[in-house]
């Protein structure tokens, strides 16, 4: 759809307000990586008006930038989203802006899929509010030192760290404050930052935001946290599972809906559990479709090393009020902040796809009036789940189920499902070619 002249004016005005002489334009790939081009402010305004041609290869290579399709890799039409213009945190007089493919090719874009789900919520009369919280490890390593060590025996930052540790905060408060300042420059608000379980382990819950900004903020947080720590001679890891000896890293997602008057949709003070019928139906849809859509929020091979018994993570679709062992935890402390916490995603999740999956499945539950199974306060880690609630065991099984899911195609479109499932199948095939140190130690000289 053509933009109005006011849109061009807004784009230029925003850059002028920032005082930007140049702009970092970011295309976000299926892995959630900000693919950067630096252009002058004048060129950015022109691209905002005329479109932004960008190479399609982002959707035909894997995370290691190895192409898995032959082709000429032509430029595809893309657009700059003027609403995403923000200050760039590492230099004066610079801005950043998110761009994405449009048209038919853009149907495979995770961000576009997320925007479509937010629009579907609006059609039902709902505003979406969401917030991610990420756990991550920090290492006293650079990219060069890790490669020199062949990624073995890496030195953890803050090795004496303890959960909610005052000592770590006292020792390294300046570094943590710098991370918060970096995010504030871009308009990414941290609700808190604290230490977590393990050496150099931290958690950063983001402040809730409306609509696509919640996912944009999460994407920017991960990308610019990596850049911030690299600028300080350190490496941050959002991997789901680094070692059997260390806890997994979560990327929990909190979501609530509000009506057009700003009232919370999930709350009903007259209900025994404080939950409205809309909340129950949202839960019903999310729980019913979660296993077949799992590849969308758990999209790496490594994510499934966390989704196993004994790893403090769910292995099946279940829910409970204030139950931290559940895949879905309902938080109903206060009616105005009643929300659903999706505890399945790891820190390596693509925020656009995690939010799309949660919102798409939940809204389907509202439309179809799907009743959830009974919630429970039991320890789900120790219980035996219903067979149809059990998650896929690995990325290959998850991708297969996503590709075969008629509900996924109905909610997110076949262009996206086929493209994304193919990329996950490629990722799993690469994994199957590898031989781990565990296999060598276990079998060499024995079998």
Automatic annotation (TrEMBL):
Residues 110-447 form the GS catalytic domain. SMART domains: Gln-synt_C. Keywords: Ligase, Plasmid. Belongs to the glutamine synthetase family. PANTHER family: GAMMA-GLUTAMYLPUTRESCINE SYNTHETASE, TYPE-1 GLUTAMINE SYNTHETASE 2. This is Glutamine synthetase. It comes from Shinella sedimenti. The lineage of its organism: Bacteria, Pseudomonadati, Pseudomonadota, Alphaproteobacteria, Hyphomicrobiales.
